[in-house]
Amino acid sequence: MQTFDFRKLTLDHLRELVSWAKQEGWNPGLEDAELFYLADPDGFYGYFKEEELIGGGSLVSYDGEFGFMGLYIMKPEYRSQGIGRLLWNQRKNTLLSRLKPQAAIGMDGVVAMQSFYHKGGFELAFTDERHENTGKNYPIHLAVSAIIPEDVPMILAFDKQCFGFDRTQFMQAWLFQTQGEAFKYSTSDGLQGFAVLRKVSHGYKIGPLFAENLAVAEALYERCLTAVGDDKVYLDIPLCNPLAVALTTKYQTQAMFECGRMYHGTKPSLPMHKVFGITTFELG
């Protein structure tokens, strides 16, 4: 088998990967490449044939405490030749070298590839399911408002609690992307939850949606539905949270497809009852 150059990707290379994802129907966000890159500029690698990028993906490190692999994609003409397998393993080993000892790696694997990922040391933790809905106007709850810069410290603290690790660099940009909105639910008792809504190729995606309870999640979800007009909106829920399932049941969403959250190493202990929508399949 011919060999390929394994290199760190530039932002332009990452934009190319995201454009492939769009062609494959992954429905990425309009600003995903730029925002992903801010999370970890050293966290994207790929294979090159001479100067042609033929495949790549993320191997993002969150301060060495936790890693995440995603956005794994090959050009069609280089598939089914074993090249992707080599790339995946080289990405995994590179990420392990960037993490502290005993740090875990997460990923969201499509069902067809989960046996392959299992052979690579990943164990299934729970199933994610993407749900589609259509925008609709709802009365805006008095406790729900737009996130402003002054809110960032408390949002970051809540995010770390639900995600499990600090991702300040990523979230500071994710909250204020130009083609999205972010909402908080706050009372006299403090922050009770928040949601980020972003424009994607077709419609909008919500992620994350973190909330203390179902009522808070519903208020934030309704605010997102109201913000999109009559466009489509997507939410990726962890099926291990029955409250998230109850949310999608109440609003009569349509399940589209599933994948599985898998971990290499010790599974993080997370308050999954507060996770109503994961952030992205690409970065966790």
The CA-CA distance between the termini, in Å, is: 33 Å
Instruction: Provide the low-confidence segments as ranges.
Output: none
Can you count the helices? 8
Compute the CA-based radius of gyration: 18 Å
Helix content: 25-40%
Number of strands: 13
Order of SSEs = EHHEEEHEHEEHHEEEHEHEE
What is the beta-strand fraction? Answer: 35-45%
Shape: globular
Structural class: alpha+beta
Q: Strand count, sense and closure of the main sheet?
A: 13 strands, mixed
Mean pLDDT figure: 96
Notes on the protein architecture:
The mean pLDDT is 96. This protein has helices spanning 11-23, 32-39, 83-98, 114-119, 152-163, 168-174, 214-227, 242-250; strands at 5-8, 44-49, 52-62, 66-74, 104-110, 122-134, 144-146, 180-187, 190-199, 204-211, 232-238, 254-264, 275-277. Helices cover 30% and strands 35% of the residues. The two termini are 33 Å apart. The longest helix is centred in the first third of the chain and has 16 residues, at 83-98. With 284 residues, it is α+β, with helices and mostly antiparallel strands. Helix 3 (83-98) links the parallel strand 4 (66-74) and strand 5 (104-110). The protein is globular, with a radius of gyration of 18 Å. The protein contains eight helices and 13 strands. Strands 1, 2, 3, 4, 5, 6, 7, 8, 9, 10, 11, 12 and 13 form a 13-stranded mixed β-sheet that branches. Helix 1 (11-23) packs across helix 2 (32-39) and helix 2 packs antiparallel against helix 6 (168-174).
